[in-house]
Fold these 4 entries.
Entry 1:
Amino acid sequence: MLRDRNAGLYLGGVVVSGFGTSAMVLASGVWVKTLTDSNALAALTGVCLWLPTLFGPVIGVAADRVDRARLLVRGNLAMGLVLCVLLGVRSEDQVGIVFGVLLVYGVSGVLLDAAEAGLVATTVPAEVRGDFNGLRMTANEGMKLLAPLAGAGLFARYGGHAVAALDAATFAVAALAFTCVRVERAGREPSVETESDRSWRRDTVEGVRYLWSHPALRRLVGAGALTMAAAGLNGAAVYAVVDEGLERAPEFAGVLYAVQGAGSVLSGVLAGPLMRRLSERGFAAAGIAVFGVGVAIRAFGDTTLVLTGSALVGVGLPCVIIAAMTAVQNRTPEGLVGRVAATAGTVVFAPNAVAAGAGAGLVAVVDYRAVLAAAVVVTALAGGLLVRRAAVLAAQSSS
């Protein structure tokens, strides 16, 4: 896949910008905590970054209305400039600036991901899109293992301004990489309508309708949503697993997250070859099964089993996400890819935050193993969506 020039440039841009983003995500919470001494406000930084995901169907329309290659370049450059605003933050009175920048950050993340999905669908050959999406996941997870440590060290030594400057620089480098991508088409299908004839609401509904009306995409994205809901429940129980199950200090949760991240890195590397062998649906179903087993064995109070379960969670969880996003790129008309990908992102990732909040409440009142059991049940429902689809296809072929 890396022999394809466009795919290599895309991946390079993703790696660089992902490093800066991962460092900034951690540093923003620490920065707000340092300025305000408030845990609640520090936690609010994550909400600002996540909230725009809920508006993916609306934001994704923009990626289908403009030249996607130029949007990626200009969007990354714009975010580099926006981050420079943080260089003026000096006191608690200016913490609102941090939240404002993070909201813009979240919106740009949804928009640029939608543009990237559309551009990948038109410039990266179909036979290596699964490899690209898998390696993109590997790059993101790898950065999550390395960048937070770098961001924390940089913040401790030089403060939040240095992390903001680093992130701004990574956006500029990513823009340069995307500038070098060779685009033969404008990145969208020509429309028989003029811009004045089109409405934002109509385009938004069109993307949602296409995703819902396509059986294969609907089931893959639905399975992804249920799996991410199960992941939210599983994540909410992690500290209880460490404390009540293993009787270890809370810091041991960092070891579990590192093992899970390593599993995700491996899964991303193998995604392309496995998808070619198993199909998108088969790859997603296999990943869901591995994820479910991983969640289940974390209920046993044994360090080896819990570590193994964390690795299996890391291996299995990305599979359905990679499969769903690859299917969107391969099976959506060029002019709709941006908004359909953004809609799929909303459907897949929003349940994770909702389930995480619900899981946090449940852990406070019930045994953590009951929460993990609920996660396993939800995972089984996710697998059932894909198994049912396979049974329908088998029945149709036999008839």
Note: The chain has a mean pLDDT of 85.
Entry 2:
Amino acid sequence: MKPKHWYDYFWIWTVAYFALGFFNILFAWLGMVDFLVPLLFAVFGGNKWFCNRLCGRGQLLTVLPRKFGVSRRKPAPRWLSSPWFRYAFLAFFLTMFGNILYQSYRVFGGAASLREVVKLFWTFRLPWGWAYTAGTVPDWVAQFAFGFYSLMLASTLIGLIAMALYRPRTWCSFCPMGTMTQAICKLKQRGRLPEDTN
């Protein structure tokens, strides 16, 4: 059996993130760690070590089938990992993130009021008022938390559905963060100067 490392338990981070956000939406800001750290690894390290070793969501998608057998373990359709789909999904993901920033800005500027809802799959509004006490933080901070939790929840549910229908880590083949970090790594490799042979 392969020995366990300290980073093999980061799946607990993913479970804790959603549990904390269920009771207090402000914990949704912690998700920015999963948003920024992979990019830092790619920009400064030129690698996808975060995706391969530290991603709590990817680990969760491995642990659940191993412990509970909740995956059909069937090959996913090829189009799910095709460049056109991956970059289209990344564009959609970034558009949703941009919308979160825009809505938070509108609340900050007083053009809109705080909406205490979580959007499931960016469509279905779930009242989430129990998870926030009005006035705890500026409204725009709370608005970002509601939006970002929605984004994290929707993308995780997509990953779980893909896990159940296909192989456990099918999500990883079209994960927006994976697509971004891979693109950054490729750009860094192309920019490297050839080694001096003298």
Note: The chain has one domain: 6-188.
Entry 3:
Amino acid sequence: MGLLDSLVSAALGGGQGEQAQGSAGGLDPQMIMGIIGVLMNNAGGLSGLLSKLRQGGLGEAAQSWIGTGANQPVSPDAVSGALGNDLMAMLAKQLGGSQQQAAGTMADLLPGLIDQLTPQGQLPADNGLGTLGDLLGGGRGGQGMDAGALAGMLGGLLRK
């Protein structure tokens, strides 16, 4: 199963628990890609996102997502606190909902996203952009793509 398939499955309730079913249900793949673009562009890529999560008290959970074992779940409140109001507001706007709904969606999506972006339990040298480039079907494997270019690609997809 590919990254996009995994994220769509999580967003449609394929994740663990009732929370996964209630907070992210109904998201389409393009919306998920838009969320990922906002998140990665505004958090400083994968390394910046992981830093925010660690500083926000989610270091143990985030490490489980990077590692090769089971992914620890996180609460929407914990995700919201770690990502901060500004980023949560951007994500809520992308989703067309409240910050509480965005926090629930991120609590569902982040474990799988970070797990998929850190193969073999390692932070990739390209800050996760290669896998995201593959996700978007860029065919370049993310080579030479920075967070701004990724956001531009996502924006183009969302306008179609």
Note: DSSP finds nine helices and no strands in the chain.
Entry 4:
Amino acid sequence: MMRITLLFVLFTARLWAQLSSNAPNDLAHGLVKAPATLKDFSLVVEVTKQSPQSAEIQSDGFKLSFSGSSVRVEVAGSLMEAPLAAESDHVLTVVIKRDPRQALSGLWIDGVEVRSTSVPPGTTVISEIPKDSSLYDRPLTRSEIIECSQKVQEPQGWVVIGGSEAVAIMESGYLEALWMPKEPVRCLAWEGDTVFKQDRPLNFGTLEDQIARLRPKRILAMFGRQECLEYGEAGLADFVKKAKPWAVQTLFIGALPFEKMEPPMRDLSDMNDVLKKYNQALAKLSGSQFIDLSGASMRGLTRDGVTLTDAGCLEVSKLIARALGAKSDAVDAKVLTLVREKNRLWHNYWRPSNWAFLYGDRTAQPSSRDHLDPKVRWFPGELEEYRTLITAKEQAIWNLTPALP
């Protein structure tokens, strides 16, 4: 009986931690002014092109120095050092969470953890901080660090959001192979996502956090189908209310009709009249920023009336690509292969399978740490190597553009 009770307590605590991790950010909480004597703390420093080429913040037991090529943090005998891209704007975030056994303290550059370390118990006196900096008397969460990093980043590229249909279309690679914009395209779609709910792992951050981290110029959104199935016409007003905040920079793709199926499969096509109302509401909300797919023929394009087959992904991608200005329906095999490889790398970077060891509830496990120095976590640095691979694959795709018809 005691064992069951303990398991229930652990499960409840873990669930509460996950719910709390996705709570709205409160960057006004814990904000303090120097001088201050702090145990755990965070320091956010903006480094812009107008900043001095090198600078130093030094207090009792703490030193932060940066130049055009590197940043170095020393606190209570622990050291974190990382390269810094020259001639670029950056947000440096130092998070100090004291624990002699675990690497809970870290150095973040533009919302990415680049170094971690263990800091022994004690306090640090921060006597002064530079202009355009913020000091907190608590460790910021990953979600808050990402939000802080948005201050100096220039918007670029496209982000795709949505549920299972969006995931299937982006994983197939057909849309990008046909459309080929010469700028980054990142898929943030997740199976089961709706405008009402987007479940994420512990410490992952919300969908809004992830969009803000990438700072896209435009968003491509695919919503409406799952909401129609779950809530019917009764959920239409709330659907519009939830979708409205995205309307400014979002190109909405209308929900696909449900395919008529024969017994023993359930026929969902009788929901298409209600689905049209969802599409009409999206069209009204977004004005010209809407791609209407309500007239698409879905015959033979789904497995069960809803889930797209590979052929379904291809045909739907053609419809979307035409609306986006694609000049041909021909898919170049070389480009398609590169797009799929790029998206596989992006998937492994954005939502890695070892998330619990990376930023979840297993960061204290030995396998999450460097075998030579257990005070250092090696997963964050290893993960960032994907960014170079993704960029290289993307450039290879763009290099093939002139050869396409």
Note: DSSP finds twelve helices and 17 strands in the chain.
